[in-house]
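Re: that chain you flagged

S.,

Sorry for the slow reply, it's been a week of failed gels. I finally had a moment to sit down with the sequence you sent. For the record, here it is as I used it:
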Amino acid sequence: MNLATRADGLGTSAGPHTSTPMQYRIYMISGSGTNETGSELVNAVPRPETNRAVQFLNVSGHNATDIRNGTTHELSAGDVLVIPSGTGHQFTGIDDHIRYVMIRVDPDKVIPLKDEADPREYLRNRWGPRVTLPTA
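Prediction finished late last night. Pasting the structure tokens below so you have them in one place:
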């Protein structure tokens, strides 16, 4: 489960992509935006083994340049969007900001569980000494 906050401008957008074997549930906490989903990705290429999602989350899939004949979903606080495994998805517009909880459903239990030290090491490697982590 992730808590994500994004501002308008979409500078942090991952672009159109699929994720397997995960199913996603997005619960909007605040803000509003547009998410596009669809099964037909344009110029889809498999994620390389060096991709962080593949390395750390066991999430393979494809990145693409667009979604052909996609369905748009206008989302605001309180909405839930379910994205089945293998379905292309991306935020295409954010009105001002969005804050949402993303729940990744792993029915086949492919993602390895982490102990307390794993997330701490990941955060230190990603953010370095500027991150302060609470002690147990």
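What I noticed first: The beta strands are 2-7, 23-38, 40-42, 45-46, 62-63, 66-68, 71-76, 80-83, 88-105.

Talk soon,
D.
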